[in-house]
Amino acid sequence: MTEVQVFGNHPAQEKRALWPALKNGMRCKCPNCGQGKLFGSFAKSVDVCENCGEEIFHHRADDLPAYLNLFIVGHIVVGAYLLFDRITDLSAWTEVVLWTIIAVIMTIIMMQPVKGFVIALQWANRMHGFGGEGEDGTLDTNIDPTHYG
């Protein structure tokens, strides 16, 4: 018989509110209390919330924020380019420069809110240690918080 592995909310744990956590994450605030900062520098999350003490260092946002950012910015920029190209008569080089600058600025502006969204999603679903347990069901107290970002 195969063992079923359950991720996220366990029956013994109370559910966390998803939408307030996502809103807090997109505001770059702690998904637990909504007060403490989520980021210590541009894209590096804090180890522990300064307000409520929630550990954040063990999140696993990895590459998902970058993929989501490119997906969102790409769709907005391509759609806007196609619309803008129909109503203006700019040279190709002018449009390349214009849309490249817009895409880079949008990507930079959206990086923290998107990463905060992913961290808050993991927190709300008790993923990757946010449930008080490691992935194997035991709390790993030997994790080095400086290793994660």
How do you describe this structure in short?
By secondary structure, the protein is mainly alpha-helical. The chain contains 3 helices and no strands.
Layout of strands and helices, then pairs:
Elements: H1 18-26, H2 64-87, H3 92-124
Helix pairs in contact: 1-3, 2-3
The run of helices and strands is: HHH
- Beta-strand fraction estimate: under 5%
The total of helices stands at 3
Which geometry do the CA atoms define? elongated
- Amount of helix: 40-55%
Unreliable residue runs? 135-139
Distance between the termini: 38 Å
The chain-level mean pLDDT equals 85
Main sheet makeup: none
How many β-strands, per DSSP? Answer: 0
Secondary-structure content class = mainly alpha
Report the C-alpha radius of gyration, rounded. 19 Å
What structural keywords apply?
single chain, 149 residues, elongated
Please explain how this structure is put together.
This protein is mainly α and 149 residues long. It is built from 3 helices and no strands. The longest helix has 33 residues, at 92-124.
